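name: query_chain
kind: protein
chains: 1
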Amino acid sequence: MNNNTYCIIMAGGFGSRFWPICKDDSPKQFIDILGTGQSMLQTTFERFACICPRENIIIVTNRGYVDRVREQIDGLLPYQVLGEPTRRNTAPCVAYAASVIYEMNPNANVIVTPSDHAIFGMENFIHDMEQALQATERHDCILTIGVRPTNPNVKYGYIQFSEEPVDARATNLHKVITFTEKPPVVMARQFIATGEFFWNAGIFVWRLSTLRKAYEAFLPNIAKSYFALTSSTPQADVDNVYALSESISVDFGIMEHAENVYVMEASFGWSDVESWDSLYGIARHDEHNNGVVMGKSLLYDVKNSIVHVPSNRTVVLQGLDGYIVAANEDTILVCRRDNEDCIVKYISDVELMNSRGEKPRQ
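structure:
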């Protein structure tokens, strides 16, 4: 394990698509979405603790979730949890953490990762991350991890790559040609047909010196303000930087403009678990293609459905085909899988009903 390796975990999202088990005060990263006995943040932290020293992992989250992070992961040092006063997308988040790392180790090699993705095949994952870190040590490059697409998913970003490998010691490392964020389904099908595209897994690897040069070149305002922050910067000064900051992603602000961007094909399984339907796709299925992720269940003439209820609850279902059945302690959702885009409306209707003290409508 290399002491120069650091990891930034981005843990500020809300995850409203997993309502009702996820809410504003209990977003996706703090929930056991996969039924493993750990939250997604806990799983992500333990995964990267196999790659770098635990004290080299920095978690950036919404300020309101700082205590929640510390409750879920014991023994974190003060600098390891950074609370953002407001959401400004991923570029400011990464710059803030990178500046704190720079205080400790200007020679750091840094992995940036979301907190709420699913990884399958831990041995392959560790191998790929170590190979990526070695590549960024050899090259002044920004490296992203790509996943070979299995379907024309329109909720993922796509990376077009050059088929010619750029490093004899890493034959799965390729030059990036283009990034396309969430293409329409027809375009996604065309991408897959060419064999020249990966899904963007949202995991970046770069030396800290490369990261800082990229920000200074493409996001100079963010570089100037965020690289002045430290782990001891007064909260009021952090608030002021965020208040004046633009909101922009690393992908759009840097990746789409830099020339030294490379992609490494993952040998591990990956899903960003962005919706109930994507969770259904990675869940273990019974003989009727049902995925019971959590809770005790009795299913009668039920197929192609996903069930996620509290572990102390029993659910009895009959006659469903292609449904989401999800519950927390006070709300139950029963919704067709192909209608899950309506969940945002359901959340709004429930909040409106509760605010008025109304009884449920038929």
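note: The first strand starts at residue 5 and ends at 11.
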